[in-house]
Amino acid sequence: MKELFRELTLASGAGGDEGDVRRIVRRELGEVVDELRADRMGNLFATLRGAGQDAPVLMLTAHMDEIGLMVAGIESFGGVRFEKLGWIDDRMLISRLVTISTRQGKVTGLIGIPAASKTTAEEKTKPTPYKKLYVDVGSFSKAETEAMGVRIGNLITFRGDFVELANNITVSKSVDDRAGLYMLIETMKRLKGMKHQATVVAACLAQHEIGLRGAIPAAYSVHPDVSIHIDVTGHFNDDPSAGALMGGGPVLRLMEDYGTHVGFGAQKGVIAHRDVVDLLIQCAEEKGMRYQPQIKPDVIGDEVVIHTSREGVLAGYILIPARYIHSQHECLKWDDVEQVISLATAFSVAVTREFVDRAIDLDRVA
Length: 366
Known about the structure:
This protein has nine helices and 18 strands. Helices cover 25% and strands 28% of the residues. A nine-stranded mixed β-sheet has the order 1-2-12-3-13-17-18-11-10, sandwiched between helices. Strands 5-4-9-6-7-8 form a six-stranded antiparallel β-sheet. A three-stranded mixed β-sheet has the order 15-14-16, covered by helices on one side. By secondary structure, it is an alpha+beta fold. Strand 10 (163-165) and strand 11 (169-172) form a beta hairpin. It starts with a helix and ends in a 7-residue tail after the last helix. The protein has two domains: 2-66 and 173-359, Aminopeptidase (3-Layer(aba) Sandwich), CATH 3.40.630; 68-158, Beta Barrel (Elongation Factor Tu (Ef-tu), domain 3). The protein is globular, with a radius of gyration of 21 Å. Helix 1 crosses helix 4 (175-192), helix 4 crosses helix 8 and helix 6 crosses helix 8 (334-350).
């Protein structure tokens, strides 16, 4: 099982160039689901049809892309300047190995920094702004770099190692959100041999890190009654506001709100639907599973654009605690992975037409 997770995390897939990741998902689910299709955005949809009449549609989502960079220019000495794709802390860029995806293939590079002898005492105490950094691909001229296939607009991803630590902790790059993608794949495999009333659509989303873009056409196209996004969230020691502990079980986000986050306008937060949360809790308790409620007022996820699609969607989250999110080496506890798969599977079986109708019943008093 971890071999698939390793393959997913080590694949290159910055926003807008998720093809390597998409091919892995197609290989894993092509013979499992009833229908497999893609859209113009690069989203991939894997569908298991429901057994019931007037089957409700449950959309389970995870995003394929990772944080990355884009080639913005090539200097005369051969260095490659870049822009960020997603939120990336300048502190983590220095001396990192990267992969540039070109039409001629993959090019390995190293993010260089100005020589210490050329920096002031004040500059030495602060992170080097990314605008002053460049990717060294081993060339000595612009022409040599271009001969490797490097062009403005090429996407760049970070290289990482897949490592096992003590206490069943797994470390790799792009755990955000290849962990969610892995759990989504395994959930669909388990559902294949089970009876479920709902039609379950695994929506593998593109371009999350650069603005939740894939989720918008995905929600419109699938037109779900219920949606659950599977992703990572911060571990308490690393992100105290997350209020979640690795090994503490699935995290059920009840509310999120990113305030005046630029680019999202009024669509800046989600309150998980109470019936979705109640059903998630019921499924967890029936399995004797620990879970962690979460209120996160400083972040948003894909449900922020999904839950307002069309006439509205019953939305919720199943998250997994992780450390060092948006760095080249993120980590999670494998026990949590297994529990999220189990909970997502149980919830998928529990969603019925009666559940959806009750959730939108105007005459309901409780």
